[in-house]
Structure formats: C-alpha cells, structure tokens
Design goal:
The chain is mainly beta and about 180 residues long. The protein has two helices and eleven strands. The strands form two sheets. Strands 1, 3, 4, 5, 6, 7, 8, 9 and 10 form a nine-stranded mixed beta sheet that branches. It is globular.
C-alpha cells in the first residue's frame, strides 16, 4: 500500500504521521469518476467493500459492475470496468464465509489519496455505500470514533464551499 498523498501533489509522498479520520467520511473514487460517497470506517473488518450490482465477469480477468451512488436513490449509479485483482474468502461478523471479488482503485479522503483493494458486494440494506477496512487504513490513518467527517467535511460544509460568494460567518470580534 502506498501512503496517502495530498490530492494536489503529482507524486506520492513518503509515509507521514497517520492522519485522524472520523468513523464516517465522504470519499471520492477518482479512477472511476465517482465523488462524494459516504463511507463507514470499520476497524473490525480487514477488507473494504463497496455496494455494486449487475456484476459481470469479462475476458482477461476484468469485471464490469454498477456502483450505487445513493442509498435512497438506487436508480443513481455509475457503470465501472476494472481489472480483477483476486478472489478472497471473507468471513462476516456472523461467522459466514463468502467468496468476494477484489479490485484496486484510488480513494480520496479529504486532500489525501491512497490506492486500496476493495471487494465488490451487494449491500442494498446498508446505510453506507462503502466500508473501509483495516487494510485500507493501516499506516496512514487513525480513527477518532467520536467524530465524523474530520477530513472530508459534512455535506452541508461541502455544499457551502461549492457555492460562489459564500463565506464563513465572522466571529464576535469580526474576524473570519
């Protein structure tokens, strides 16, 4: 695994001090052109997972699938094609073993990017489209279980930042 890098840097930076993230973060998957997915940070899971459907095995160890962009609007999706990295046996929290297909992609959490392996799974009843497990976090991130959106900001903060002319409220002394 490579260290996270600030997204504006063209070259991966050397390992730095691990960054604190919340138990829930908004992530982007820039290789796939996907932005603003809500991910739950799950230190109890070794592997990461993403909610997909219409999974197809293609020639030359490639897969095609649809990524759901919203839990509430399952019709919103993006079709992705990726190279299959490996098959894995994954044990659920209930002790059931499942075969899972894993692919590699880059995640962006706030200003940091990191290449990870992520399992393709149907998770229609889960609150978050993505679970980030320990292998995606190791060496680079530590989790603050009492906080959310430490690196990515909340949806309200992201919407406000995207609107032109919107400024932070001034403090009592008039400073920003």
């Amino acid at each position: 695994m490579t260290s996270p890098k600030p997204a504006s840097e063209p070259v991966r930076s050397p390992r730095a001090v691990p960054r604190a993230i919340g138990w829930r973060e908004r992530i982007d998957l820039p290789d796939w052109g996907i932005r603003n997915l809500i991910a739950k940070i799950d230190t109890g899971a070794r592997t990461s997972a993403i909610d997909v459907e219409a999974l197809e095995l293609l020639p030359r160890r490639r897969v095609r699938f649809r990524v759901h962009l919203s839990r509430n609007h399952r019709h919103l999706h993006k079709t992705v094609e990726a190279k299959l990295v490996r098959d894995a046996r994954v044990r659920s929290s209930l002790g059931h073993v499942h075969e899972r297909l894993l692919v590699r992609t880059t995640i962006r959490i706030g200003p940091f990017e990191k290449e990870i392996e992520i399992g393709l799974v149907s998770r229609p009843d889960m609150l978050c489209r993505v679970l980030l497990g320990r292998s995606a976090l190791e060496h680079d991130f530590v989790v603050d279980p009492a906080r959310r959106y430490l690196l990515s900001g909340s949806a309200k903060t992201r919407r406000a930042a995207a609107r032109p002319g919107v400024r932070k409220s001034a403090g009592k002394d008039g400073s920003p």
